[in-house]
Structures are given as C-alpha cells and as structure tokens.
Write a structure and sequence with these properties.
By secondary structure, the chain is of the alpha/beta class. It is 38% helix and 23% strand. It folds into 2 domains: 147 residues, Rossmann fold (3-Layer(aba) Sandwich); 223 residues, Phosphatase 2c, domain 1.
Length: 400
Amino acid sequence: MMERSRSESNGKMSNNSRAEILIVDDDATSRKILVHLLASAGYACWECENGAMALQTIREKQPALLLLDFDMPGLNGAEVLEHLRSDDDPAVAQIPAIMLTAHGSEESEVSCLQAGADDFVTKPINIAVLRARIETQLRLRSMRRQLERQKEELEQWRQNLERDLAAARLTQQSLIPQKPPALPGWEVATCYRPVIQVGGDIYGWLRMKDGRILFWIADGTGHGAAAALLTTLAKLLFHHGSVEHDTPASVMEAVNHDFRSTFGARSFMTAMCVAVDPTSGRASVVGAGHPPLLIARRSRATETIASLAPPLGLVEHPEFAETIVDLKPGDTFLLYTDGLFGSRKNKQPRVAPQRLEKMLDHNAPSADALLGQILSEAAPVKGEEALSDDLAVVAVRRLA
C-alpha cells in the first residue's frame, strides 16, 4: 500500500502545515496509514469511507485538499469529482483533488485528469511523491486565492476610480460653458470630447475691462484626472488675469507667472486667446505653444496665426506678442486643441495642419455647420475612427 521514504523521517514541517486534508478511501487500513503519515508531516487530516459521505462532509466543512481513491463502491472517485466540479459554490468546485489509483496505465492517468483531478498518484504510494504533489496543489490553491483577492482589490480600486472620475466629470462640466455667449452680431459653436470621463482641454470666454470679449483655450499635459485638475486651475488663472489686466498679452503673462509659481516648470500647458471687439471686429491674438489660429474669410481665403511664445509654465519671462486681425462680416476663426490632429485608433495618418485648412468650408451657413463639417472629417465618432486624444474646438463667426 505505502512506500515510506527516508525524507519522511526528517520531521520537517511545510509552509502548509496544518492544512486540512480529507482522505476518501473505502479501505480502512489505507486511510489510517495515510492519516498517520500525513498528520506526522504536519497536516490536519480527517477521513471518509465512501463518496457519498465525502460529498456531505465537504459541504459541511471544506478541506484545503482532497485525497480521493479512484476505485470505490457506490460513487467512485470520478463521480465524486463530477459532483464537486459542478457545484454552484466556487469554493467547493475548486477544491484541489489528487486521485489515488492502483492503475498505472496511461489510460488511467487520462481518466483521472478528465474526471477533474488536479493530479494523481499511483499505488503503492510513495509518501515523498504524495507530499510533493500535495504541497504543489496547496501552493497553487494559495496562489489562486491570492489572485482572487488581488482581483477583488483591483475591482474595488476600479469602482473607486470610476466614482472619482464621475465626480471629476461633473466638476469639469460645470467649468466648461454649456451654451454660447449672448453676443449680438456674433455666433459661437463649440465641441468638447475627452478621451475618458475627464480631459486636459478647456476653453471659455469672458468680458475684459475695456469691453472686449476674450475667447481662450488651453491644453494641459497628460490625460485623465491629473490633466483635468490643470484645466480647473487654467480657468481660475484666466479669469483672475482678466480682472487685473486689460490686454491678452498681459493676461497670458499673469497666467504664465501664476502657473509657473504653482508647478515650478514641472508641468506646462499650451494656450491661445483672442480678444475681440464685438463692435469693430478687431481682434488681438496671443498664442503660447498652441496650434495656430485658423481664420476662414468670407472671401474664401484662409489665414493662420501661429503661437509665438512657448507653452505656459516653461519659461519664467517669455515675450507674448499680439497679432492684430480684422474680422469682417462672414469671417470665422477657429480655436482648437491638438486633438483635432490626433492619430486615429485604427492607425490612420494624423490630420496635418495644411489639410485642416482645406477642410474649412467658407460657404458654411453658420458656425455650427462649419464646425460640424470639420469634425466629420477630422474627428469622426464612429468606433475605430474615434480620436485618441482630448479634443476641444471653438468656432466664432461674425455675422453679416
């Protein structure tokens, strides 16, 4: 029945000592010997004489491992495992089982594994081999439980993150204008699409001390919640700067100073602002590392105004030069983030600035129509065509 090895007498205890093992065998002598040898090795053992009793015992008290004789009257080892593996309780269905069989053939080995056994040991049993296989199964069980715990922790972390992102999304939505400004003689259309619930792009408009309307847009480094925090700061800084300063260049200087004071050049954001006199149509443009302003003239000409200063936060005292343009009735200017250039998820080429200029429909009947036509080509929303970067666009048209 049993082969006793020299290693059995050394009395070493395993890391799985006191693991509970259920021994199921119709032969009483075999059970007693196994209980004695495994108990002396540090395991806690109890025994059953048949399969039906084993199933009842397991449901009352689950062992760490099952030693199961293949040939038994009534329910044999394969039938016992069939019941266990189909149990609704995952803890029962996944109990490690080592089959004990007197058949050493390859066909018998296959039968044991097909029945749901994790391993098998042939009789007469070498106790060293049995202990090694028990330890292997107990280690695998421990690793499985650890993975399950980690999975639960990861799921909890995911749920917490989802809640945090949902809260951040509501906060960011409150910062982004939900409807265009009431500006007689002008029309404003916008689009905002973060990659996830929150993004690193933001835009807005405000009235300056001299009556001009300052349209501004910013793109913070990174994505997600960290970038969203930058957008919150950006709105505060632009509004604070517009209160104390009366030119777009001085507003940008104030934003750069406060941003750099906060992060110390460890972070940066690109930005562009356009101060528009709603009566005359004269506008002053200032850019800091941002994609160029596009102007679609009613005359079908297209103009670009590049950013002349580095991104905000990189340089302590950059020079913010203003570019003056006159917007005529029917002219439209476009503020946007680089998400409009972004590569699509299906690896299609990025939209080059020159191509974006050609997408401008100078005959579009409204700012909404012009923006919609650009988005349909540069930033479609269908499945794999979706862009992989945050996107914000503001189109402003002077009405005829």
